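Can't paste images in this forum, so I'm doing it all in text. The chain is below; anyone willing to post the predicted structure tokens underneath?
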Amino acid sequence: DEERPNFVLTRISCDAAPVAGGKAEPVAFTAASADFTQKSFAPEQAIDGGDRKGWAINPQFRKPHWAQFTTGEPVGHDGGTLLTIRLEQNFGGARTIGRFKLSVVTGGDSKEAIPADVTAALAVDAAQRTPAHRAALAAFRAGDDAMITRLQKQKIKLAADLKKVEAPTTQVMRELEAPRKSTIFLRGDYKTPGDAIDPALPAALVSSRSAANPVQSRVDLARWLAGPQNPLVGRVTVNRWWNELFGQGLVTTPEDFGAKGEPPVHRDLLDWLAVEFQENGGSIKRTLKTIVMSATYKQSSLIRPELQARDDRNLLLARGPRFRMDAEMVRDNALAVAGLISLKQGGPPIKPFQPDGLWVKVGGLRYDYQVSSGEDRFRRGLYVVCKRGSPYPSFVNFDANNRMSCRVTRPRSNTPTQALTLLNDPVYVEAAKAFARTILEQPETGIEQRIDNAFRRATSRAPTSTELALLRSLYEAQLADAKSKPDDVSRLVADFELPPSIDRTAFAAWYAVCTAILNLDETITKG
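Text version of the structure:
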């Protein structure tokens, strides 16, 4: 079976006879072990498991495997021993071993490890053994079986421990042993194959250097595509990083560098960055540092009227970049401002809060969506679970892709739903509470100093006098409201850890101020 090349070793048996001639005696196996065992098909069943049992290795096909069968007594005759081993494979479906090797191994002089009473019993013919002989042999075999069982359990535990630290792998592709024959289809009709052809690059793309290294496999093609002779890889790569940093690439259609795409406004800059990237060994860090340390990137993002009229899209790069953050960055930024973000790396995805019932039935299956707890719920958006049939709603509201199709760039919208998300989503509600707690835990300062500090943490600048007055007015109004509605304050702090030294009504007022600051356009805008 090409897809499931399994086997079932129904029974293994062995006879031992003197080389000089004589009667062959059956050899008794008392224990078995293997490097891998199919469920319900253990190697012990090949000793005495019946015709419908045995040792099998599904699903670990196309790998070397071994099984070891241990005898209950030493085997051998003076002058040499002839062993006859039979492998019976009676399971249906032609489940037989394709290639195998048999080895017979001893552990040196086994008599040194055998007690004297057992050695005496073995020296007597089986028919003449006394009850004492048989009792000594039975006790010795039982102890041996117990030791083998302990070793097998230890091996299983060690294998499980190794599996925990193994890096996950997945098969990407597997080359055929013999390449598939390809032909030219006459007039494009697959039913009329013409001359056979070998794999190669189109002649129009072949240069003198690539001709010396012909492309004959997928690996060759990948090396040619990413090689220094192909300038497209460097251009596309640095253009995508420029897009991440400036909100749009030097080529504003990063998904299309072809005839239908937009030409670069700064072609020389794109070429220079691509060459720098390739000549520096493809160093991502060096390329990004070059861009962000440039005078172009460090310009002010303020839009002057004359620039707005001449170049509203900033294609000429006369000002610094300014654009709304991506969905994941909006969440990460709020958690960072609040002092909650976890920078732990790796591990399984996290599940932040989302409305109940979204995962009740997705794609024909029922799922139990359990919101992550502890530090995990504050991990970066990179680790948020992605399910194409039901993506995380908070990210969708900020134009994240649902992964149903490949999309190089995301649109950037500005909708009321986004403001409602920042006001009411439990992630941002908890971030605002933690933000307020952080402000109140600082050494005693005036209200305006605390507003200034909170504003700087979120926007990286000091508030104007107008902004300061508005936020102070909001604080005073919310403080008066909190004093008149103690029940609302109790509900606000019910599930939130708050030190006894912090006044609950003041916390409620600062929560409103921090929510407003986290909801500012400037807080979620880069620039």
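Residues 108-113 have pLDDT under 50 and may be disordered. The first strand starts at residue 11 and ends at 18.
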